[in-house]
Design goal:
This protein is of the alpha+beta class. Helix content is about 30%, strand content about 25%.
Length: about 130
């Protein structure tokens, strides 16, 4: 059984409120970590997969500095933090092109270049206003 599904089942069985949920520890972060991605996926592929649970406003697919090849993990930010809960609960343990991916909440500090990328992806407001 997937670890996140097990945590959610334990909380449900114990009658834990939304405010007491482990998800609430990340209520101030709209970022998720995505690991074990197939190496041939692009940023666009990651956005396509994760957009089913909300509006992604930023993706950082980690790449090797020298070769430019994917390292198989990414950080993604949603416009609405509530989308992170849906993505974590529904996509952790999912199979993408034969690989079982890992999806979890995270805190991510954008570097200057990351902020510029997020602003370029934004259709309405700069990242610092979200």
């Amino acid at each position: 059984e997937r670890r996140i599904a097990k945590l959610n089942e334990q909380e449900l069985a114990a009658g834990v409120s939304e405010a007491g949920s482990w998800h609430n520890d990340y209520k101030d972060s709209a970022f998720i970590f995505v690991g074990s991605l197939p190496f041939n996926l692009t940023e666009g592929d990651v956005l396509a997969i994760f957009s089913q649970y909300g509006n992604p406003v930023f993706v950082d697919l980690m790449r090797d500095k020298d070769t430019g090849k994917s390292k198989g993990f990414a950080f993604l930010k949603y416009e609405d933090q509530r989308s992170t809960v849906l993505a974590v609960d529904n996509l952790d343990g999912a199979t993408v092109l034969g690989r079982t991916i890992r999806v979890d909440h995270t805190f991510y500090k954008a570097k200057r270049d990351d902020e510029e990328l997020a602003n370029a992806m934004s259709f309405d407001a700069p990242t610092n206003e979200r």
